[in-house]
Model the fold of this input.
Amino acid sequence: MSTSSHSYPMSGGDDNHSYIHNSSYQKAGIDGVQEKARQYILENLDLLNMNPNLSTFTIADFGCSIGPNTFHAVQNIIDIVKLKHLKESQENSLVPLEFQVYFNDLPNNDFNTLFRTQPPSSGQEYFSVGVPGSFYGRVLPRNSIHIGNTSFTTHWLSKVPEEVCDKKSPAWNKNYIHCNDLIEEVTEAYKVQFTKDMRVFLKARAEELVAGGLIIALGQCLPDGVAMYQTWPGIVKDTIGDCLQDMVTLGLTTEEKIEMFNLPVYFPQSSELKGAIEQNRSFTIEMMEIVSHPLEAMQLSNNFVTSMYRAILSTVIEEHFGDSVVDELFRRFAKKLSKHPIDFEKCKKQMVYHIVLKRK
Amino acid sequence: MSTSSHSYPMSGGDDNHSYIHNSSYQKAGIDGVQEKARQYILENLDLLNMNPNLSTFTIADFGCSIGPNTFHAVQNIIDIVKLKHLKESQENSLVPLEFQVYFNDLPNNDFNTLFRTQPPSSGQEYFSVGVPGSFYGRVLPRNSIHIGNTSFTTHWLSKVPEEVCDKKSPAWNKNYIHCNDLIEEVTEAYKVQFTKDMRVFLKARAEELVAGGLIIALGQCLPDGVAMYQTWPGIVKDTIGDCLQDMVTLGLTTEEKIEMFNLPVYFPQSSELKGAIEQNRSFTIEMMEIVSHPLEAMQLSNNFVTSMYRAILSTVIEEHFGDSVVDELFRRFAKKLSKHPIDFEKCKKQMVYHIVLKRK
Done:
């Protein structure tokens, strides 16, 4: 792909290949940690200090995709804020709360499907709005959000670092299609982009959040010292790259196309992530946990892995290679997996990070 | 169609038949009156009284459809509020304003197209959000909107009055497909529904608007004493009904289907409209003008009329008669028009109403 800042949402619609039906891995990650965020909110969210006359509590989900995980995440937040509000109302006479939820994603996200698949009960719980725009920049007015959530999003960079597609650069990524940590200069280029993007993300959120407001961020990172190619998601992407190479031999795509293609995706090591967050001075880090993904130790089925990565990557692959490539590529990928199944137990583990930041 | 409260948005996408490319009649109506709304805002909008520390000015367009008219309407409002803010800032030190625009329409409106066709400049002007939901009910939090706009929307009722599809009722509308004012009981049933819907619309907006906030409403009505069947839009819909009858003869649809089909559309006479608005005690009527549509006296081409009504009605027709009917129906309609062109000069005129309401 080119290095411009195009955007590649998850697969839209609600057919078999859609993100809607292939996002249970992400959901398991959310479920695994929600209890701690609930506890934090219950003990620490300072409704009175935010605004004693608060009548609308606003929640934003940054990079919401098309559901259902986003509905699940925001409902969790609403449930606990309601409980907190009820408790505080017994001591102080607070105004009844209405909730407004801002569902943010890129302008080419499938908002139609998002709106049409909202749980029917959500209408009683909150006012929904869709916010089109890259979260690597402001998408909401100043001081307008009480809790911002983001789940499994910040590994999507605003763009591929230019040098990894430049054959003359030492950071050229050859015919790999992602940052698998096999070329040091490539990792460095991705890391620089990630750090920059994280700075922009947090700066924008700092402006959008009210004082005392929270960011709840969930995502994946690598333990320090672990390289991407040693993990199963790294192996998956390297295998997809191998399948593309096979397709070159058959004339179904070209070597040049592969050389120019890199995923705008980077999973930082945990200390890098921490460093990137600590750089921002507008927030205090209230909680930062690096935990195992609940499904990490499980032997996932080949079908599950194929469907999951098809839902995540088909848009970006289609954009670069054309839409005729996707079916063939994932057919080949499934076949390769069945011949050489991933040995999940032997793989190094990616981790899930779970962070709560508070706007100073 | 059934009398349930299904929703029928304008034709989505951006092909030849889409609302995007067939909404210039509505735009001409907006252009015709915008200057007066600008003047009103400039002279009367009370920014200081709303909130001296106001940092986000919020505008909602209720029933925005998919553009481009909605972008045009909100930009007009923003331009004049900016001017007003600049003027007031010279006397009082006001906080710089950011704008947030809520684009509201039914959940099955094509929000994807709306977001993807926003003028590139809009990103510098305001934060956009899409609000899925019927405006015959609350769609936004209490006290959250400064100016609400609605253009050519409130003739779409929340539902068809049940009795007009009931063969045993004196208000049965026979094989007419809309309220053409030929059957008194039908008109009465539609009028009751319109009055009820207007009450619900204004009650919801009264809750959503801040004190001092404005509703700018634009739409079509009939002069007192004029019947729908005497106007060219009435003739158009009666002619579409005739074409459906012709299709019964050929076995392309059935008499029963037509008898159960009525458009959820009603254009009140101007005194009715005024009465419906005056019933609501939460607003003062700051301006109420009934003017001619700038294109009313023009001889519109058959192509223009066919394309315009196809964009408006194809969704609701398709839902009831099936998608195979739409092409054939509008082919026949175009043919009938070319044989019997509408004599626009002889028709009675519909009027454009333009209202500014202020939240007490």
About this structure: The longest helix of chain A spans residues 184-208. Residues 245 and 255 of chain A are 7 Å apart (CA to CA).
